[in-house]
Write the structure tokens for this entry.
Amino acid sequence: MPSRGLPYLLLMPAAIFLAVFFLYPFTLVAWEAFSGADGGLTLAHFATMAGNWKFSSALENTLLLAIAVVPIQTAMALAMAVLVTKIQRGRDVVLYIFTIPLGISDLAAGLIWFAIFDQTGFLNSALHTLGVVKEPVIWLGYQNRWVIFLAVMLAEIWRATAIMLVILVAGLGLIPKEYSEAAEVFGAGPWQRFRRVTLPLLRPSLQTALILRTILAFEVFAVVYALGGNNLPILMGQTFHWQFDLQDYHVAAALAMVILGISIGFTLVLLRVLRVPKGAGI
Amino acid sequence: MFSRRIAPLVMGVATVLAASVAQADVLFWSTQAKPIEETQAMRTNVLKGFDGKVDYQANDGGPWLTRLQAELKAGKGSIDVLGGLHGDFSTLPEGLTDLSALDLGGAKVNPGFMALGKLGTGEQKYIPWMQATYIMVANKKALPYLPAGADINALTYDQLIAWAKTLDEKTGGPKMGLPAGPKGLLHRFLQGYLYPSFTHSMVTKFESPEAVTAWTKLKELWTYTNPASTNYAFMQEPLLTGAVWVAFDHTARLADALNKKPDDFVAFPAPAGPDGRGFMPVIAGLAIPKTAPDMAKAKALIKYMLQPSTQVATLKATNFFPVIDVTLPADMPASVRASGAAIAKMSGAKDALPALLPMGLGQLGGQFNQVYIDSFQRIVLNGQPIKQVLSDEANTLRAIMKKADAPCWAPDAPSKGACPVE
């Protein structure tokens, strides 16, 4: 018979870990963001942050990137997950291949795509060999921000769709076959079964995957840094810049708070929109 | 049972061993010689002659400062010797040991540089270590396109613009290059070359009519500059690939091109404007944090770094020149010979106008640079009106100077109190 305190005891290491390595540093950062030179509370750092000429474009780019990338990734991950579950033979191999990008660090992923789009990169040499261009094209120049944006989108989709895929594959595995079979008996086609049976039952996994992916999208950094340098300002890049280049920890902390705020906001929205009604779970 | 008991013991012994090994090595914590080949050359060629083991660690400025500050704050540390640029040290005079009484074994360090090492205090906060500057390098293919009558060793900004224009028109695309990437040093070009050449100032005349002229000229030059410049950090790379034929950068960031293809490239002085040939000498120094675990070994290492043979080895490893009087041997790399000659012509020119690295800004050094980078990005890349941007950024600059309470440095006239922005 396990004692009543056992669950709490088992939770303890994780709780202590979180408190020491997450909550404590977090309070320090929060304090940095709001504390003034005289030790009192101030919003001056947020004013400095918002007054910087790059802040609005960083905010805009970060949001646009998340809005552009996450839906595409969701659709792709869903399609890939259904595909994987339908495959009879070689399923594991396909799943492993799909998840290879997960094992690559985001900076490495950025560098791979940089090697493609760079002035002396693969894309230019391919186009040159095919005779499409005479001189190498500068794809990632400051004049073509939308190309940088597209390159970052591509790199992000390539790199981070697998994390959603893994969650969704696990979620699909949890859905009992009987529901789908029953629907089939009543004459539902494959699309109807997907829309009316699989998708609603997948909701909890979808919610987890979306929350995780959206938060990660707001924290995008290394890929943009590798591909765009400072031509495509984003919030995380600005945080790094204020912390290390400009050595103003207060403003860096304020930016971190903004990212946190956006992440919490979107998480709440997703929790609400994709909520699973009580008693409706599997 | 046995292994469970023995495990902590083994781990304990291992920790003690690791600690004692760490103690035997002198930790040389540096912001210089960061590219891996240079770090390796420092370890194997420069430091091997020192009596004792040295652990040479090269870092970016941010992490370098973060660890140092943490050690100073904690009151004890493991860093013995610091290597950094003048600007790296200006943040922390209180944390550095006074090295006035240090015996340098007869090495005669340039007295002007020694004075800089005081960081405005009465103590010798750092010992000058090595020096460099920024010059220009051109592919020899570009020379036939020089404007008529122009002397490559005495160019003006107008001639450089005309040259870049001809290159753009006659060679199928812009061939001028500037290090305007996130890791590039374009801000030094703006602070130490463009501004002094046109305004005889770096700070005071930031938004003067002369400054407007300077930015107009730079905008013009930019129209004939390879737009990929916003991704460049080390100009030796685009020079070697042929994407750029004429470039401005730090001598250490051009060396690779001069060494790999010595017959293809020429080094020459930066151009001159109406107020002279502005250029910026760069000084790196050696210091000892007050928390150094082995003060005697640290001092011995600094003395070793200042010896003529070490200084020559350092030059070969990093392309930074000696700060002491030393005759260079004949077998120096091509980059040293080429850039050495260009530096001599630049500093010896009749219109030479040296501009010092920012001083006394402490932690605000990064924000000071950002004013120039932001002005560049807004005016040149985003096409915002020059006057408007300069007056905006002048406010930021004024606030930084006031906050740092930093007096003016050359070429601005000395000031009482914070350097004014007129």
Summary: Chain B has two domains: 2-132+282-333, 133-281+347-404. Confidence is low (pLDDT under 50) at residues 1-22 of chain B.
